[in-house]
Write a structure and sequence with these properties.
mainly alpha, disordered N terminus
Length: 192
Amino acid sequence: MLAIRILKTHYDNNSMIIHTLNNDFSIKYILGIINSKLISLWFALYFGKLSRKVFPQFKINELRIFPIADINPEQQAPFIALVDYLLLLHNKETPQILSHTSNTRIASHLEDILNMMVYELYFEEHMKEVGIDVLQFINPKPIDTLKTDKAKAEVIQEFYDWYQKPDNAVRQRMLLVDTRSKDIIGLINKSL
């Protein structure tokens, strides 16, 4: 694990841009970690604060010791793709991707998947041991190079349809969390 080391920050229109010393970390990868249930729980336990905001607010000194899993850019790709999906789904100007399911509901499912991915970064051995590891099955297509929101929506719909299949390995493993890891992953899921 590496802690985020703040090289410099810039404030612009109430937002903060973080420059890290480790150029191998994508900001979107860090965004995915920061917004996970695991890190929200860590933040609550470490600092005695609980943040349920979409983008938690951290002080610079709190970010300096943040535990970010050190993985290579190729391993970060699925995290980055899901963060891109979530950013599009949470954009109020994005038209509904599916007629029968709101973008918010789709985003909720994708957030659950992203949480499982983050858990595996920190509890890999345990999750493999109890058969709830998911990273091996997740390969979302990137949308950052696609030109239109319609093309991006089609990719997100394809991923969502893949996840919704009853025999989907990720979906099945997520259903097993409370029985196979009730004292670790199940506990984290229930705490927030």
